[in-house]
Recover the amino acids of this structure.
C-alpha cells in the first residue's frame, strides 16, 4: 500500500494526494478535526509527535513504484513544522526525497519561521512547490486562545513575505474562517504585502455551532470584491459556496484543481 494517499471528502478539495509525517500535533488548535477523524482523545493527539515509523523507507518504496504528477500535500494530519521530537528533521528528509523524484508538493503549516529552515530545499523544487500557511486571526489574543501553540499571526504573515520574496509560490488557507472580519483584514494585509499567490477560502465547520451566526453570503461577496480585481488565484470551498448560492463565481474559482501544483506531459510509469 502506498504511503502517499488520495484524500476524500472535504480534504480532497485541498489536494489530490497527501502524506502525513507525524500523527499528532503540538499546536493544539481548539477546532482541530484530526482527533475526531482518527478517533483519538485530544490528550493522545495534541502531543509532541514522533515521525511515523519507517516513513522514509516506505516513502522511497512508494516513489520507486509510482509517479506523481499532481501535488502531494504535507500534511492533513499533524503539522510538519509543529514542535515534534526530531525538530522537523524528517520533514526535511521527506522533502529531499520528494524533490529527488520530481514530485509536485504543497506544504501547509502554522509553524511560522520554522518553515524557513527548509527554504533551501523549497528553492530546489522551483515551480514544483507551493508553501502556505493558515490565516485565521490578525488579533493575537484570539489566535492564542484558539491556536495556543501555533506561530502568532504576525510571524505567519512575515514568513509568507519572506517565502514570496525568495521566489517560492505561496498560498494562504482561510479555512477555518472563524470571524469573517478578521479574515478580511488578513486578506487585505496579504494584498498590501503582496505575499500570497493563491488563496483558498472556506469557513469554520462543526465547531460548537460557532459558524451559525455569521452572514456567509456577505463574507463570500466581500472576498470576491477584494480579490477578483487583483487577478490572484482564488479557490472558494464548497462548504462556503453552498451557503451563498447567490454569489456568482467563475469556473476557476470553484475548480479545486485549477491552481494545484502539477507537472504537465510527464510520462507515467508502468505501474500507473
Ligand atoms: S495545526 Fe492543524 S493538525 Fe495541528 S492542531 Fe492545528 S488544526 Fe490540528
Amino acid at each position: 500500500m502506498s504511503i502517499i494517499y488520495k484524500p476524500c471528502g472535504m480534504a480532497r478539495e485541498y489536494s489530490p494526494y497527501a502524506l502525513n509525517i507525524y500523527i499528532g500535533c503540538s499546536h493544539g488548535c481548539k477546532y482541530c478535526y484530526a482527533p475526531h477523524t482518527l478517533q483519538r482523545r485530544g490528550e493522545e493527539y495534541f502531543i509532541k509527535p514522533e515521525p511515523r515509523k519507517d516513513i522514509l523507507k516506505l516513502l522511497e518504496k512508494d516513489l520507486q513504484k509510482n509517479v506523481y504528477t499532481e501535488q502531494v500535500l504535507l500534511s492533513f494530519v499533524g503539522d510538519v513544522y509543529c514542535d515534534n521530537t526530531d525538530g522537523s528533521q524528517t520533514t526535511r528528509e521527506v522533502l529531499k526525497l520528494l524533490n529527488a523524484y520530481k514530485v509536485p508538493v504543497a506544504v501547509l503549516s502554522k509553524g511560522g519561521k520554522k518553515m524557513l529552515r527548509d527554504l533551501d530545499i523549497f528553492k530546489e523544487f522551483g515551480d514544483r512547490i507551493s508553501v502556505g500557511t493558515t490565516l485565521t486571526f490578525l488579533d493575537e489574543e484570539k489566535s492564542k486562545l484558539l491556536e495556543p501553540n501555533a506561530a502568532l499571526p504576525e510571524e505567519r504573515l512575515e514568513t509568507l513575505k519572506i517565502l514570496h520574496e525568495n521566489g517560492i509560490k505561496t498560498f494562504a488557507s482561510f479555512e477555518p474562517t472563524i470571524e469573517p472580519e478578521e479574515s478580511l483584514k488578513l486578506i487585505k494585509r496579504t494584498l498590501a504585502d503582496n505575499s500570497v499567490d493563491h488563496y483558498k477560502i472556506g469557513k469554520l465547520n462543526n465547531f460548537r455551532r460557532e459558524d451559525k451566526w455569521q452572514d456567509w453570503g456577505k463574507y463570500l461577496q466581500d472576498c470576491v470584491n477584494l480579490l477578483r480585481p487583483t487577478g490572484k488565484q482564488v479557490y472558494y470551498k464548497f462548504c462556503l459556496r453552498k451557503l451563498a448560492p447567490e454569489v456568482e463565481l467563475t469556473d476557476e474559482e470553484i475548480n479545486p484543481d485549477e491552481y494545484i501544483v502539477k507537472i504537465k506531459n510527464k510520462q507515467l510509469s508502468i505501474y500507473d
In short: Strands lie at 17-18, 72-74, 105-108, 129-134, 169-174, 198-201, 233-236.
